[in-house]
Amino acid sequence: MAALKKPRRPKGSGSRLKTSGKKIIKKKVKKVKKTSLKKKTVKLSKKVSGRKKIKETELTRSPNNPIIEPRAYTWESKATLNPAAFIANGKIHLVYRAIGDNDSSVLGYAGSYDGYNITDRPTHYIYKRFGNFAKPDLSLSPIDYISGGGWNGGCEDPRLTRIGDMVYMLYTAFDGWGSVRITLTSIPLADFENKKWNWKKPVMISPPGEIHKNWVLFPEKINGKFAILHSMSPKILIEYVGRMEDFDGTKFIHSVHQGSPEWQLREKGIRGVGPAPIKTELGWLILYHAIEEHDPNRYKLFAMILDIKNPAKTLYRSTSPILEPDENYENEGYKWGVIYSCGAVVKDGTLFVYYGGADKVIGVAVIKLSDLLADLKKHKAVKLKKHSAEI
Predict the structure, then answer these.
(1) Helices (DSSP H) in the chain: which residue ranges?
(2) Mind listing the pLDDT tens digit for each residue in 26-44?
(3) What is the pLDDT confidence band of residue 139, given thresholds at 50, 70 and 90?
(4) Pick from 166, 111, 174: which is nearest to 137 by CA?
(5) What are the extents of the domains in the chain?
(6) How far is CA 81 from CA 106, 111, 258, 377, 382, in A?
(7) CA 272 from chain center: how many Å?
(8) In contact, 341 and 59? CB cutoff 8 Å
(9) Does domain 12-390 have CATH number 2.60.120.650?
(10) Distance of alpha carbon 141 from alpha carbon 145, whole angstroms
């Protein structure tokens, strides 16, 4: 077995350093008593930079967490993490990243009717890199990019968006050598529900030679066009596209990355958007990942509301995390102290947030949507500037 490489920060947007997955990293944490789903959890006040934080509502974890863990199958024997989610006909569908014996990332499926209990989980993966995407481009310089243990490349951190009778998926494609790019594919809803995995041939929508992660597609057209949020800071960047077919492998979305001048202007701590946006009475609900200055080694989940008609405009924004890595299963894995969500849905007035814990397992946390919106409405501070582009 090869020795672990010391990771260095890759050039790109929204990337985080991780270990190779060949060694489990553990950090002792104080055990947190599991709470009942019926009980609303409130954060204790903390002093930050000499001032007291206001008590804010947090999500409540399922006492059955983790709800998805690695199994003995070769394709998901090491890690199951970072699930995307959407709801259709009363059923919640999850597509999660899995890492197996060969340290390559593929995508698995799980389904739930109540949001908490997985009732449908095939023994095989449903998506993997294929065709020209399966071979690394050796003309590029190699990078020490190891995300969640998948050093051998593959399909990472999917985001699902249902629009009408079509399901779109954005994911990070890593070739295991020197390319980390956002990739788009889709599948008819009917095929998805019937487990006929007839995915459309994927196409890369971020430019070559740049590292990009964490892009999401809005669940409906805005001003008659598809909208893709591809940067959170220093500006909210949204690309408006007339047809998804316009992405033909030659047209790309140009976003903030380490080689761009905007990179130095980013808001400190923000790491990237989480699940696809959710439409609410206040605006678009955005969940995103960030690190707090006083606690720089832990990935936490925050929330904001964007304007319905102009989602580059921030209306409300949480001042404290709504979920942070406190449980053992969020600290004992391939990267301790990580909450990483790629999927969330609203069912019967409850927001279900699905997330990866410590880059190894999957949990779910919930809150009444109305409670979260009421809490967000208290915070009107707007720190992110607006910007949009078209192709």
Answers:
(1) 189-193, 369-376
(2) 444 434 333 334 333 333 2
(3) low
(4) 174
(5) 12-390
(6) 11, 15, 26, 31, 32
(7) 8
(8) no
(9) no
(10) 12
